[in-house]
Amino acid sequence: MLATPSSTDHRGGPSSGLTKLRNTVSQPVVAAFCAGGVAGAVSRTVVSPLERLKILFQVQSAGRDAYKVSVSQGLKKMWREEGWRGFMRGNGTNCVRIVPYSAVQFGSYNFYKRNIFEPSPGADLTPVTRLVCGGAAGVTSVFFTYPLDIVRTRLSIQTASFAELGTRQKELPGMWTTMVSVYRTEGGILALYRGIVPTVAGVGLNFMTYEFVRKYLTPEGDKHPNAFRKLLAGAISGAVAQTCTYPFDVLRRRFQINTMTGMGYQYKGIADAVRAIVTQEGVKGLYKGIVPNLLKVAPSMASSWLSYELSRDFLVSLQSARTEGVL
What we know:
Blueprint (H helix, E strand, L loop, with lengths): L4 H6 L3 H12 L2 H19 L1 H11 L12 H18 L2 H27 L9 H32 L16 H11 L10 H5 L2 H15 L9 H30 L13 H12 L8 H34 L4
Helix pairs in contact: 2-13, 3-6, 3-13, 4-5, 4-13, 6-7, 7-8, 7-10, 10-11, 11-13
């Protein structure tokens, strides 16, 4: 006689293990953690060429014009000099960073919201509470993954044709080699967290805006809005949040390479950096690279939120499907 599924479960066989796995990944916090990792990898890969071009614009100081070009010219230059690899330069490290970053960010946001900030299960949060909750999630995720962001920035610019960097490097050091080099030669563990203060600023705004926009794009009682409304909410929230906090992103990139020779700046702190940029490059210096950033923000944020919600909903549904006997 063939064993029934229940008897297999009783003996702790494969069916039991699969059931435990489904039960684990279908828990809201775990589902949010896993879905966040998927969302991060998908969104960054989709916009990798624009993301790298934005960084090249951001780090270019006054008097440097290697990348003082339009978005289309910059992309053509990147393709002509480095080919397809130029479009994807640093994306591998970025995905290694963004998967745990997004996973921790979405997972901790969901955890903080459910276990700390919600007055009662399912209760609506105020915009200020969402801001605090999102900020806490941002600090958590940034702390765990920030060193990889510095490595990604270094790898993104090392093959670009910046005359101030000397001859472009054809053979780059690996991700871990770069990280160890920064640690050993630029100040130890603090060097791997250079620029973290402006990075944290504005993370909560994205969560607050997204949920605020979703509330108005989703009819009352509609628990499963269609994909278009999810895409629209993600695009709007991303555009608003990133535009408001963009100068902090420029500061982050500048500080991440502040110790590299030949880039034209050696800032002593945030106030000194802002003063120097405005004096030498004007207020527009704080918005260098905003055009490719705005071009990428819609597909990036939209694909991020869409893939996050689809992945999360699928994982959460495993529990209800098992309960109903579908799986």
